[in-house]
Amino acid sequence: MKKSAVSGELDQFDRKIVDLLSEDGRMSITELSERVGLSKTPCQLRLKRLMEEGYILGFRAVLDAQKFGLDHVAFAEVKLSDTREAALGEFNRAVRKIREVEECHMIAGSFDYLLKVRTTDIRRYRQVLGEKISSLPHVSNTSTYVVMQAVKEFGRS
Question: Where would I find the HTH asnC-type domain in this sequence (predicted)?
Answer without folding.
Answer: 10-71
